[in-house]
Structure formats: structure tokens, C-alpha cells
Amino acid sequence: MKFHRTHIASAVSLSLLGLMIAPGGAWAADTAPAAGSQKAESSEAKGSEQKNNTLEQVVVTGIRASLEKSIKTKRDADTNIEVVTAEDIGKMPDKNIADSLSRLSGVNVTHGAAFAFDEAERVQIRGTPPKLNLVTINGHSLSSGDWYLSDQNATTRAVGFGMLPSQLIGQSIVYKNGRADITEGGIGGAVDVITRKPLDLRQQLTGEVSLGAVYSTLADKVDPQLSALLGWKNEDKTFGVLVQAFREDRSLRRDGVENFGVTTLLSQDTTNPAKCITVNGSQVCGNAELKGKRLPGNLASALFEGERKRHGGFLSAQFKPSNDLDMSFSVFQSSLDASNYNSNTFTFANNMLNGAGGTTANGAILSNYKIVGDVVTAATINPNPARLSANGGLGDIAVQSGHQVRSGAGSSAGFYDFDFKLRANDRLVFNGKVGHTEGTGETESSPGMLFRAFNKPITYQINGDQGLDWSVANVNLRDLTQGGWHLISDIQAVFKTKDQDTYLYLNGEYDTDAGILTKTKFGMRAGKHRNEKDQINGAWNFMTTGTGTPTQAQMDAQFPVSTFPMSNAGYYPADYGSGLNGNFPKDVLRLDRGTMLNVNSLINYDPVLNKNWAGSYIVNEKTEAFYLMQEFESGALSGNAGVRLVGTEVNSIFYQALPANRVCPALAVSCPPQVGTPVQNPIASSRLSGYMQQEVTTHHTDLLPSMNLRWDLDSRTIARASASRTMARPEYSELAGAISGLNNNVTPKSASGGNPNLEPTTSNNLDASLAWFANSRAYVQGSVFTQHMHNYVKRGTAFVNLKNPDTQEFEPYLVNSFQGRKAKLKGLELSGESPIGGGFGIVGNVTLVDGVDQDGAQIIGTSKWTYNLRGYYESGPWTATLAWNQRSAYPVSYFGNGTISDATATAARNGLNYADAQGSLAASISYRINDNMSVVLDGTNLLNPTYYYYSITPDMPLGWYKNGRQVFLNLRAKF
Description:
Belongs to the TonB-dependent receptor family. Pfam families: Plug, TonB_dep_Rec_b-barrel. This is TonB-dependent receptor. This protein is mainly beta and 975 residues long. It folds into two domains: 7-261 and 298-346 and 406-448 and 493-538 and 608-698 and 707-827 and 843-897 and 909-974, Beta Barrel (Maltoporin, Chain A); 264-297 and 347-402 and 450-492 and 547-597, no CATH class. It has ten helices and 51 strands. The strands form eight sheets. It has a 22-stranded antiparallel β-barrel. The protein has a five-stranded mixed sheet with strand order 1-6-7-4-5. Strands 18-19-24-25 form a four-stranded antiparallel sheet. Strand 40 (778-803) and strand 41 (810-837) form a beta hairpin. The chain is globular. The two termini are 43 Å apart.
């Protein structure tokens, strides 16, 4: 399904909403809330006492009451915030916290490196990339890992929301403005997920149970869903315990038509009229008009299947012996088991076109081609018959049938902490928190069987953004024992990641009571953070010496065609690709998953011998922050002003592979004589290579001032303004990328790798908003904002002091790495909600963002338009909600060097890879059987959208994907 822009419709909808709640409108308030009501406060450790008071003051019994509670928190705040309240679970069909946050004005979600799975993984605020936003839980950091192999390799600071079920929410607040008392780490804003505490529960004994199932339509499987909560507090309300547990399974299937890469025709033979080959008795020659044009490199029919089994729990114990002392201990643990099986049958057009080993081309020639813009949208790629001598007489790779099982794939997130609040006297209150959080991501093994056929003609046609056709001649895609297939050695590496943070928060609040000065806040935070990634390569057991990588001749000897593991081999499902446009291979072979798992007995992932140190690293960070903030109020004007001082020490440890004459690796057949200065502390434990450790330590200090103003224009109208500086730290992989291509024979010396000298990204922000509250359940608000960023990280070159292997001394190298650039964002938001009578109501928002960096490239992750529209109904035992979310196209990565430029005679075009406009429809309907029981039917991805991704222009596809719908049925009970 293709989504088109409907910005005018969105604006009209919200304008009508404004008329509905305008004075004299159909749903205007009879009475307005009292002016000068208590304003929400926030603190370093967990928000503030006011948040907990709010939870006790409002009894949530339905959709309207839940919305009323969110509006009250938003109205009372002295800064521009958005709120999700889920005290009574089940008012929305959202299954993780990111889904809930995506309904808010200015908030987007993404799906991780895998692009198009069915559940949101990351959160963006006002167009900033997920890595530049801060997510905390109860005010402190949260470490999490990733389940998908590519995400594990990328290692990001962005929290994986797939670990956080929606049941965990007591309240989530999105801060869009900087404040001195908010933990640093978010450029666009910060999300604080607030869990419930036992003494906040209304009853002495509270219980909630939800039992049900989910049906995934594309996977055609039903999986169980279970969650439970039990809370107890004593009669004196001085001690309480709350326990939550959850187990949520889901089966995944994703059908895709993919393009893994883009080839730019520069020096290939197909651009040279003097280069010709004979095809079916006719001569076909190159053509100069193809020079600088782009064509797809690896067209694929892709099928992904897997499981997502999320389970864990939350425990909170609270002791409040008096109004002067409140102590809590909390533990949270969530694990996600996500083993998966991915099959791809795809072409190798880029291999037949591009040279290897220093040559410029492999001699393939295009025929019957069409060009649209700079894209070759249709062609036949004819292999060069003279290349049959390559690859041991096989020729150039034309097509591959790949089958990869990622066993033991999963992730985890968890924390434990102790927090307290102590009232020293009538004017001075202290609060603090100490704890530890840890998240992991891991894939235990990735056994694969990859078969290749060589020197076959490839034909394709791109049908705009609607789909594509492709085929390979003279090969049987259903029977790999026919047609010249060979098993190749291509076992995927696996990754083990761990992120952990130990933190300490100490804060104070002093009732200043001096004229307009109302409260002084001060405090500190100290953290010790460590992120580490290990890459472990796989090796065939029959390779007992050397690097473990066999030649094609050795593979053919070990696995002749007659012994291919074809037992229980099947094919793609009969309905594979039924929702995707185009004529592409669908009836292709797929090996049995059990057969693939048996390949584990043929390979090993020895964590010592097979460790790829070049793909591994450690980043240690020590952070300290101090803040001082003054709150003030004078009549209708109130707000806060403060400053936050942040110090960061970054220790980046990464590794460089060295030739055997510098460090001889384990299991080497022979060790050449050593040359040059001996390597200090050489790493020779891996069979893959010898390595040398590189280590760089840097220090950064940032001063983050902020001011937030609130002006109650009248009893219903509130204006807010904010000026602040915020910061975020670079990704771990940007700081500690492996060093390669080191060249001591040029001036200056050069290399490729990460940049441990990267400074934190900072942003100077302005925000202004105007809100009108018709009543406790109706409002409309508009906001405008700007962000001017410094040290926005993207690809580039930078000087880095690295250890020279020849001298063992640190010297400056010009590294092809990352650099800090300037960037700016500006935008506006319009949001509102209102009941419309008869139990019906409407909630909506529109966000417009324009973000570019100094190279003219759109900021990664920025959609120009985002809108949400939600309708609800609540009457008697019935409640229902229907929610639509859409965002316009947004860039997901760079194509080339991060600039925007056309192709030249010697260089490829530079630009961005995009996700096309995406929309989703979700619904929930529930029936309350009695005061304690209800049945709930939820649906997500109801329109089964097609997610489309492309490179630079929509004519160059990267992939179309479908996940199917998910339908949840649950029986809920509470007491």
C-alpha cells in the first residue's frame, strides 16, 4: 500500500478541532480550570513529588479519564511537554512504549537497522536521530541491547523499546525543552518512563491479570500473551510491594523484494563502446551514455521468519515511615529471545560488472536497457564469456541462494536501584538515587548454507516505486543439484554486546521564598559507563590450520553437489510475495530450518580462536554533572533558569590487524621472520590475524544553560518560551571503529577507522508555544522551535593520534572516519483533543520539521511531515479507539560521503537513502463484563502496509517489505 501526503487534510482536521473547542463551540467548557494551578516539576532523579501526587489525585477508569490526566499534567507544567498516561492498561492497542509515544506531537519511531519489522524500536523527538535523544526510566539511564544481527553490529546509544512492554508505564513524559535538572544526553528532548510505586495504588491490595493470544496473519500463527500485577500496602500506608510479570510471544514473517547495493557505472566495460562480447551469436557493445548512471547491484527475493519472545518483570518495594522519609528499591529485567531464519535468492549484477584484484571491470555488457534520470531502470546484464577462467574456471558470480539461521539471537535490559527522599526541615528536601543498569545483545551462531551459480544472464525492470521484475537465465532456482550450483564458504560473524552504567544522583530542593524566587534546586550526577562489542567469526571444523577460510576447491571437495544437505528441503510459502508488486522469483527453494541448525555441528564459533579483534572494541566513559536551577513566580509569570556543568572522560579501545611478519596469528601454517620494532603487547590468540591495541582517552566539558518561562495569559490560555543548550554523545562505533588501510608511505599518513576525538554534539534551542484549555478534556496548542547543532556526527576525515606499528609511537594520521558538522532544525507543531459528544472524542496533531546539515544533506531520520489522528468512543461497558499515524519520507543513511552531489566522470553520485512515506492504522475495542473483568480486541498494522526504501531517488529501490497484521485478544481481570 502506498501512502500519499495528506498535509492539508491534517491541517483542516486540527483547525476543525480548534473550532470545536473554541468559545461558544459545540464542546466549549462550561467552566474553566482555576488559574495558577500547581505546576508540574521535574528533578534529576525521577521527576518530582508532584508527579506522584498527580497519580494519587486522579482516578483513571476509562479513556476520557486517562486523557484528562495527561492534559492536566501537560497544563500544569512550566515547560513544553507531552504526556502518555496508562494507569488503566488497554486504552490503546500499543504493545510497547514506543508505540504509545508515537501518538504524541513531535515524536516519531523507527524500526532499527532491519528497517521494516512490525514493532517500533527507536524514538525520535522533533526530527533528531534516535541516537541524539535521551531515554530514562524513573529519571535514570537505561541500558538495553538489540536482537537483530545488524543492530548488534552497529551498537547505538538509542534505547531499544522492544524491551519495554506497554504495561510498564505509569506515566511517560516527553520533555521538549532543556532544563538544568534533567539528565544530559538528549538534543531534541528526553523521554522519562515513570513506573508505578506500591504506595501510589488506590487499594490496599491490587491485582491485574491479562491472559490472551496474538494472531500474526502473515506468519499464520497464534502465540500466548500473559501479564500480571500484584500490589500490596499496609493499612498505615507506610510500606508496600508491587510485582509485575509479563510473557509476550509473537511470530514474525516478513516478505521482501530487496536490492542490497547500488552500482555506479564509471569505468566498467559496459560504458566503453570499444568493449564488445558475443551474446547468442550477436555482438553486444558498451555505450558511453551509461557512464555515471546507477543500477541495482543485488536484487533479491527475501523471506524472514522468526520469533519474538519477550519476558521479564518489575519489582518495587517502598517504605515511607513518615512524611519526611520515603525510600524505594526497584528491580527490572526484560529479555527477548528472537532466533530467526533468513533466506535470500539474489543476483550478483555488481560482481559481473565490477572488477576485483586491481582490475577495473569484469566485462559484463548491458543490453536492452532503459534510463530514467540517472537510473538504469531496465537491462539485461550479459556475463563476459572470457571470465570463465575466474574463480577456478567457474566465472563471475551471477546468483546466490542463501539460507542463514541466527540461533540464540536475543537481547536484554534491566536495572536495579535504590532511591530516597528526605525532608530535612520545612524548607529543605533531599532526594537521591544509586543503581546499576545493564543491557546485552547477542547472536550465538549463524550457520548458513550459501550456494552460487556463475556466468548467467540477469534481466530486470524497475517499475518506479511500485515494484520490480527480475530473473536469471539458465539456472534452476528450485533444485540446487542442477545448473552448476556450488556451496561457498560464507559463514556470518556473530556479535556479543554489553552496555552497562553505574550511576549516583544526589539532589536538593530549597524553598527560597524570597520575593519572586520560589524554589532553588541543585544536585549532581556521577556515572561510570562501559560499552563493549565482541565479533566472533565462524569457521568450518575441517579447517584445522590457517585462518579457517577454505578455498572454493576445498569447499567443492568437502561438499560435492551430490551431498548437498537437501533433506526436507522445501520452497517459499505459496502466498510468498502476494502483497508485493512485480514479477520476481517466488517459487524458489528454501532449506529446512532443522537441516540448517544441523550445520552447527560442522562449524564452530570459538570465542578465542575466532575472535575478530578488528570488529571489537570497548568504550569507557566517566561522567560528572552539577546543576543549579532557580524557580520563580511573579503573578501570571513563572518559570525556571539554571545551568548544568557536564564533564566527560572517554576511553576508546580498538584494534588493528597486522601482517604475520609483525604478529603471527594462532594456527598459522608458518610464521615469517618478524620485521620492524616489536609490537607492544601483541594479540596473537586469534587464528584470523595478529592485532595491536589502539587506545585514546579524551576529556570534554560542556556548559548547558537553560531558561523556561510560563505566562498565564488568562484562566485558559498559557504561553511558554524556552531557551536552552543541550548535548548528546557520539555513538560507540563512531568513537572506536577498527583501524584499517593504514598507510605510512604518504604525507600525511592515512588510515580508515573511528574517531575517538569526536566531541559531544551540542545544540542551542529556542521554543515557543501557546495553549488554550477549553476544559479538563479539551485543548489546542501550537509550538514553533529551532535547534542549531554543533558537532553533528557524519562521515568525513579527521586527524587522530594513532600508534604507528613501525615505530610503536603515537603519530598523527588523517583518518577516513567521522567528523563533527553544523546542522539546524526548525519546525512547528499543532495539537489538540476534545470530546465531541455521545461518548465520542478526537485527538490529533501535526508536526512540520525542516532539518539540514552544512553539507546540504537532510538530517538522518527527519520527516518533513508527521501527523496522528485518533478517534475514541466510550459509553457504558464499551470502549473503542481507532488511531492513524503517518510520516513523510525520511533519510535512513548516507549514500557516498555524506554530501549532496551528482556523479562525475570519475566519482559516483552522493546523497541519501530514504524510507518512503509510512502510515499505520491500529484499533482497540473492549467490553467490560463487570467491574472486575473485561475482554479486549486489539489490532495493529491493520492495513498491512508496504514499506518502501530507496536510494537518492524513488527510481532506485532498496526494498519493499510486508509484515502482515497482528490481532490480539485478551481477557483482563482486576481487583
